[in-house]
Amino acid sequence: MPKPQLLVAMSSVPDLAIDLLRERFEVEILDFKQASKEEILNKVHGKFGIFCCPWHEIDEELIKNAGSSLKVIGTMSVGYDHVDVIAMKKYGVRLGHTSNISSEVIAETTIGLLIATARRFFEANHALITGGWKETNIFWMCGRSIRNSVVGIVGCGNIGISIAKKLNSFNISQLLYTSRGEKPEAKNLGGKLVTIDELVEQSDFIIVSVTLNEDTKCIINRKRIAKMKSHAVLVNIGRGELIDQDALIEALRENRIEGVGLDVMTPEPLPLDNPLMKMANVVLLPHIGSSSIETRTEMAVVTAKNIIAVLDNSAMIKEVQL
């Protein structure tokens, strides 16, 4: 009996995950980033499952074109805003993701990005390598300390809690957070549940780690940016669309906030002529929040196991309830 067919949407999946899949499937690898839409639609037809990541748009046209054989999408990511979940539900396709696995390493990236932005590391490094290290002013390249500050976390899920735990060692004065309801873990860390408007008004450092959906799109908008302290530092490790980027650029140009650290932006990759690229008080990373070798390998293996679970008609390690 022939094995069911599986399409892997990228060529860089760790061998450990691919070997697991090949035991149960006829695996075909097609780099969606390099392929045309026509080629993708042709290749997806008749497949049992698709192994993908946030770089790949899984829309209704693709799901419908795959046909009745398509039973599962496994995304190697926490978020799944690149997947049309309404179409998934419509066609009875299950969706697996890798929630919780990357929380710790994303929190590590967040703290690193926060420190680099607040303490002006990239700006100082640029001055050093371009011969600008000549200042005698004792306040030259002084940034802001996290100690004794008010830190606000927008969205206090698994990643937000991990960030809060790490911030605890910095002796901050107050931790604020937003959530649908009070989080016992955050409360035990001294966190205070507040509204998003209270958070942006009171925080010295604002970290955006909420899930992107219709309710949270542009949750950091022009009005809320205007409420921030003039020395506020904003960090986003969620999704680019959580922030009104045009309003953010305007505020930075007018020096209405002190700095921004972004691991995510709109669009991705960010065009080289985007104003954010030229601003000294902006630290940009190319969406590498979960980019540790150990984490990415574990995410790939869990994605493979999620897909295999559907073949076995059993529970996934982590399934999105559609």
Automatic annotation (TrEMBL):
- GO terms for cellular component: cytosol
Question: Domain D-isomer specific 2-hydroxyacid dehydrogenase catalytic: where?
Answer: 10-320
Q: What are the residue boundaries of the D-isomer specific 2-hydroxyacid dehydrogenase NAD-binding domain, all occurrences included? A: 111-289
**Entry-linked CDD domains:** GDH (cd05301)
DNA-binding in keyword set: no
Question: Molecular function (GO) terms listed?
Answer: glyoxylate reductase (NADPH) activity; hydroxypyruvate reductase (NADH) activity; NAD binding
Q: Which Gene3D superfamilies match?
A: NAD(P)-binding Rossmann-like Domain
InterPro entries according to UniProt: D-isomer_2-hydroxyacid_DH, D-isomer_2_OHA_DH_cat_dom, D-isomer_DH_CS1, D-isomer_DH_NAD-bd, NAD(P)-bd_dom_sf
Q: List the coiled-coil residues.
A: none
| The protein's name | Glyoxylate reductase/hydroxypyruvate reductase
Source species, please?
A: Aphis glycines
